[in-house]
Design goal:
By secondary structure, the chain is an alpha/beta fold. Helix content is about 30%, strand content about 35%.
Length: about 90
């Protein structure tokens, strides 16, 4: 079964929150290839890969709860299961 961990974050805080979250995920054997980061209020609308983690950026302001489904649909992303995480979990 394919499980993707969808992380909602904000461009202003992601450099503070994501390293802590990624460290915890690594300790729990979650691979970088299973992580997708959805960035709210980014500088651009591009998709970037860093260290095997894919970041989907959106320039527009959207509530964290909506950024993930919006970008999943926009980019036609596929997975058997999605697990939603806020970057402050």
């Amino acid at each position: 079964m394919n499980i993707i961990f969808a992380v909602a974050t904000h461009s202003k805080y992601m450099n503070q929150t994501l390293p802590i979250l990624f460290g915890s995920m690594k300790k729990n054997n979650i691979k970088n290839s299973q992580i997708r980061v959805f960035v709210n209020e980014a500088e651009s609308d591009d998709t970037v890969e860093k260290d095997g983690i894919i970041y989907y950026n959106s320039k527009e302001p959207t509530c964290f709860e909506w950024i993930i489904p919006k970008l999943i649909l926009k980019n036609n992303l596929q997975s058997d299961r999605w697990f939603l995480l806020h970057d402050t979990v």
